Amino acid sequence: MRKYELLFIVRPTLSDQETAALTEQMKGYLANVGATVTNVQNLGRRQLAYEINHVREGTYVLLHFEGNGAEVAELDRRLRVSDAVLRHLIIRIDEELRRAERMKRRRQRKATRRAQVAASRQAREQKPGARGKGGEEAKS
Description:
Elements: E1 2-10, H1 16-32, E2 36-52, E3 55-67, H2 70-81, E4 85-92, H3 94-126
Antiparallel strand pairs: 1-3, 1-4, 2-3
């Protein structure tokens, strides 16, 4: 299953209950078509970067879901015709998550290598009779 992220901006004239009802409606549609909603966050009312239809602020809602891709076109259509939604964006995030996991593993490997090098360097410096810079023996 593919992972998607839906962000939509709701008109500020809608109450919190109406915004929650709209979110539940979207979750219900996704459940009906076989998608699984994994996370829903109401990010609250924020000022828009630019005015949309003479509106300067909106309520942002972020929704993560997993599906096969067929439901995205219908979800997009439903959001486009809804008067309550100012803007929306649906993106596929599974590729980005894989890329982030690879970067995380790479950072962990580098950190492990650095720790091993530092430990071996420290062990060499602590050996009696080890030579320091300039070929002199280390003093105890």
